[in-house]
């Protein structure tokens, strides 16, 4: 019976997609490490735990209803309910593919997981863990699943001809503009704008970025769902584009501050990977290099500009994912080449209509992500406090929400005295 169900499955394609799925899942702990290094030491574990929590929460919601809403049916705005709780998701291949439906489901689940985790970067160091878990569950269904359906689940953008190879709409613009909304609703950290809030471990950040780049070969290379030309092209472009972004970022850092920073280098890797995510299987290797170089400019500008505002979008998800994803989606409309992708040309190769389709996606996805996230968090905030007290922030989210610390000493550590049984816990920073 299993052999009959598996008819039409290509073992080589399936083997690659199993590897790609594992690579993309690795990206979420890598993101946790990347984010954890960017915050203050007293919030290290809590920041990492938000990414770990996304693995659980988003996987469960995706299996129960999110996957069905994203990929069942061809409704313009949302999918159907035939695949709720993995109904009819079996060993047989999904229509048009040569891999088991179960593998397709698992691969797409890892996308939902990391996108949910990405949004946490806007609210670290002050959002309460409980409300974040509720937000993650609802956001993964109400925002991610909707955008995934629009872009590559048979929704209206897909039907119009918008090209998005690996998630520029639901993953990159979805997370980036949702992060902006989350930062506005939750508000700035109590010390934002009054003291330096610096990354505590640049090595964590670099290791996390390196592991993310490694995982991105599965993220983009797997989005061709085979070992064919599209996957090979996307895989190669995932090497080229971030490398070009990194080189330009070095130059921008050196011009602006006369130093090439480690945090800047790690950020550049992420920006380059995001830039090529929507375009990976549609542009030539030469254009991938150019996209990495030119796309660095608006993202770098946003990172420089944002701290001058009162918007504490803490880890620059908007710049690294929202603006980079927006740039990558638009770039397809200019530089896509049918001679490389077998699908469509951009305006530079004779098809102005493709640019219009890309512009539509670049307008609709940010608008929906921002508005839906804003309303969702306002609703949750009406039911429970989204953030802790100033004392909680001073002590650190690690101790408050997890009863643990990443480091035995340092900012936020608990001072233990012989009178600890009768005295309130005192942060080391406040002890005299």
Helix-strand pattern: HHHHHHHHHHHHHHHHEE
| Percentage beta strand | under 5%
Give helix % range.
55-70%
Tell how many strands the DSSP assignment holds: 2
Textual characterization of the structure:
By secondary structure, the protein is mainly α. It contains 16 helices and two strands. It has helices spanning 2-5, 11-38, 44-71, 101-119, 129-152, 156-160, 168-186, 202-221, 229-257, 262-276, 285-305, 317-335, 338-341, 352-383, 390-395, 397-402; strands spanning 414-415, 426-427. Strands 1-2 form a two-stranded antiparallel sheet. It is globular and about 60 Å long.
Short description:
This protein has 432 residues and is mainly alpha-helical. It has 16 helices and two strands. 54% of the residues are buried.
Keyphrases for this structure?
single chain; 432 residues; mainly alpha; two-stranded antiparallel sheet; 16 helices; 2 strands; globular; disordered N terminus; disordered C terminus
List the helices and strands and how they pair.
Layout: H1 2-5, H2 11-38, H3 44-71, H4 101-119, H5 129-152, H6 156-160, H7 168-186, H8 202-221, H9 229-257, H10 262-276, H11 285-305, H12 317-335, H13 338-341, H14 352-383, H15 390-395, H16 397-402, E1 414-415, E2 426-427
Antiparallel strand pairs: 1-2
Helix pairs in contact: 2-3, 2-4, 2-8, 3-4, 3-5, 4-5, 4-7, 5-7, 5-14, 7-12, 7-14, 8-9, 8-10, 9-10, 9-11, 10-11, 10-12, 11-12, 12-14
């Amino acid at each position: 019976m299993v052999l009959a169900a598996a008819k039409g499955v290509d073992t080589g394609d399936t083997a690659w997609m199993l590897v790609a799925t594992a690579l993309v899942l690795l990206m979420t702990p890598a993101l946790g490490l990347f984010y954890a290094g960017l915050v203050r030491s007293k919030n290290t574990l809590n920041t990492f735990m938000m990414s770990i929590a996304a693995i659980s929460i988003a996987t469960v919601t995706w299996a129960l209803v999110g996957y069905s809403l994203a990929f069942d049916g061809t409704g313009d705005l949302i999918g159907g309910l035939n695949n709720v709780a993995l109904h009819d998701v079996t060993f047989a291949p999904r229509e048009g593919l040569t891999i088991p439906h179960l593998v397709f489901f698992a691969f797409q689940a890892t996308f939902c997981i990391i996108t949910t985790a990405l949004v946490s970067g806007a609210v670290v160091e002050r959002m309460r863990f409980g409300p974040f878990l509720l937000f993650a569950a609802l956001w993964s269904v109400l925002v991610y699943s909707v955008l995934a359906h629009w872009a590559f689940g048979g929704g209206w953008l897909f039907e119009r001809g918008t090209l998005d190879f690996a998630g520029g709409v639901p993953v990159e613009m979805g997370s980036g503009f949702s992060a902006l909304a989350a930062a506005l609703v939750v508000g700035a950290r109590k010390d934002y704008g009054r003291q330096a809030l610096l990354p505590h471990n640049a090595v964590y950040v670099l290791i996390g970025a390196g592991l993310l780049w490694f995982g991105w070969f599965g993220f983009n290379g797997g989005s061709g769902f085979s070992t064919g030309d599209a996957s090979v092209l996307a895989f190669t472009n995932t090497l080229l584009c971030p490398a070009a972004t990194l080189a330009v970022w070095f130059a921008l850092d050196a011009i602006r501050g006369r130093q090439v920073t480690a945090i800047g280098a790690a950020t550049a890797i992420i920006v380059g990977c995001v830039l090529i995510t929507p375009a990976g299987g549609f542009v030539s290797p030469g254009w991938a290099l150019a996209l990495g170089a030119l796309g660095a400019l608006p993202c770098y500008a946003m990172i420089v500009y944002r701290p001058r505002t009162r918007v504490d979008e803490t880890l620059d998800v908007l710049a690294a994912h929202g603006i980079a994803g927006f740039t990558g989606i638009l770039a397809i409309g200019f530089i896509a080449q049918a001679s490389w992708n077998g699908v469509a040309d951009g305006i530079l190769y004779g098809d102005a209509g493709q640019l219009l389709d890309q512009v539509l996606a670049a307008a609709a996805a940010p608008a929906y992500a921002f508005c839906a996230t804003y309303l969702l968090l306002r609703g949750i905030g009406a039911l429970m406090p989204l953030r802790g007290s100033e004392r909680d922030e001073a002590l650190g989210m690690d101790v408050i929400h997890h009863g643990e610390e990443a480091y035995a000493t340092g900012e936020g550590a608990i001072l233990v005295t012989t009178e600890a049984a009768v005295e309130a816990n005192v942060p080391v920073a406040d002890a005299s």
